[in-house]
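Hey, I'm writing a tutorial for new members on how sequence and structure tokens pair up, and I'd like a real worked example in the thread rather than a made-up one. If someone can provide the structure for the chain below, I'll link this post from the tutorial.
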Amino acid sequence: MVWTLHKGHRMASCHLWTHPLGGGVRLEVDDEWVRGETHREGLKLLEVALSWQKSFASKGWA
């Protein structure tokens, strides 16, 4: 898991996983898939994960 944020009783989490193209980043809210991306470079996966975290934090998730 890369990060977890909460807002009230809700939970958003971001996970990294392996993928035939290299790796994937997956965003879940309340254990349901919201979006995902695949990339060959690990650094790009981390950049995406952190941008999603920043977006959620700007909407009151902590």
